[in-house]
Specification:
It is built from 2 helices and 8 strands. With 179 residues, it is of the alpha+beta class. The longest helix is centred in the N-terminal third of the chain and has 16 residues.
């Protein structure tokens, strides 16, 4: 009897974990106004993400100092003057797919996620478009959306307002494997 209970417990545990996928090396990049004199762009390949397909929950964690720029001075200004990486070392997003039943048939179609972005000490509810598909047993996700610096109390001095737009394009790409 004890073996049967143990077998059922292990089966149920493996089934619940079979719906969870994660990565520690997702990619988030951002791009400021492309019409500016100097294009401000950065990439971060150390993004953590977890998605639970059984209920549609997802969470992302992005360490701000892991963003890298082509110009070292831009990286320094980003960390010290704009996002204050010492005070706010990470940005997080916790959300849920709007239509959880759509996760049953992932085929590269566009889905929506709503949740709370926590960045620079400010929490803001946002809705994000997401594309998901299966690839070799892994879950591939991508998204492109815009954020306003002003929504997160990130100040852009007038002196550089011709170089840095208030609206920043965010691109996310993740390859998540089963936990």
């Amino acid at each position: 009897m004890n073996r049967l209970i143990l077998a059922l417990f292990l089966f149920s545990m493996s089934h619940s974990y079979a719906q969870k996928f994660m990565t520690r090396n997702g990619e988030v990049s951002f791009l400021s106004d492309t019409d500016a004199i100097d294009v401000v762009a950065a990439i971060n390949n150390q993004v953590g993400a977890v998605i639970d397909l059984s209920n549609g929950d997802l969470a992302f964690q992005v360490f701000m100092r892991a963003f890298h720029f082509k110009i070292a001075l831009m990286e320094e200004h980003f960390n010290e003057n704009y996002v204050a990486s010492d005070d706010y070392p990470k940005a997080t997003f916790r959300g849920r797919f709007v239509n959880v039943s759509a996760l049953d048939s992932l085929s590269g179609k566009e889905l929506s996620v709503t949740g709370v972005m926590d960045m620079h000490g400010v929490q803001k509810e946002i809705k994000i478009p997401v594309r998901m598909k299966w690839q070799d047993g892994a879950l591939v996700g991508s998204s492109s959306f815009n954020l306003l610096c002003s929504d997160f109390n990130i100040k852009i001095p007038k002196l550089v307002s011709d170089k840095i737009s208030n609206e920043i394009q965010i691109v996310v790409n993740v390859l998540l494997t089963k936990i």
